[in-house]
Amino acid sequence: MVSLDRLFAFSALALLLIVIPGPSVLFVVGRALAHGRRAALTTVAGNTLGAYVLVAAVALGIGPVVERSVLLFTALKLAGAAYLVYLGVRAWRQRGSLRAAFTRAGPPERGGLRTLGEGFAVGVANPKTMVFFAAVLPQFVDRAQGHVPLQMLLLGLVFNVIALVSDSVWGLVASAARDWFARSPRRLAAVGGVGGLAMIGLGVTVAATGRKD
Question: Do 88 and 198 contact (CB within 8 A), yes or no?
């Protein structure tokens, strides 16, 4: 199975990616502000389920193929790193857009199943998560231990537990601190700016690390 040092390193990298405001976080925040705490937490649950579908797809499909091919792994890793840098630059340039998420009004809260389904759709289509699972997940697999798909499913579960906690906190904070953020556009811009720089740093880290065989 996955060694503790690999698990710790993966968890640290996953945490760095997860805490950066991305499509899922903005969606959760928007739901918290438009429909309240319950809708936000339901959205988080759907989002997490969608993200784990991506984990399963990588673990049972593309993951083992990438894990066996150094050339494919390197190409995918560099492409993923470049895309993360691109997302970071875009987040930096559009850092003022967080204000819209915190000030957006919406209709009354909708049904829980519909909210769960919409959260699922966002999670399964999140490009940031796709890149992370496809380009980063395979390099934390210990091939000597075997059971590569199972290791990926375990690492993906760790990722999703971290994401569940982090996104829930974002939703709860957005519900509680709506007025405070709305009074200062600079606070929102700072959140977006820091997130963009962190995304760029993550992309560089992904490009510079990985297996050496």
Answer: yes
Do the Cβ atoms of 73 and 124 come closer than 8 Å? no
Count the Cβ atoms, other than its own, within 10 Å of residue 148: 17
For residue 175, which amino acid is it? Answer: S
Q: How confident is the model at residue 130 (pLDDT cuts 50, 70, 90)?
A: confident
pTM exceeds cut of 0.85: no
CA-based torsion, 2, 7, 91, 198: positive or negative = negative
Q: Are 35 and 106 in contact (CB under 8 A)?
A: yes
Angle, nearest 10°, between helix axes 37-57 and 112-124? Answer: 40
| Predicted confidence (pLDDT) per residue in 186-202, tens digit | 766 666 666 667 667 76
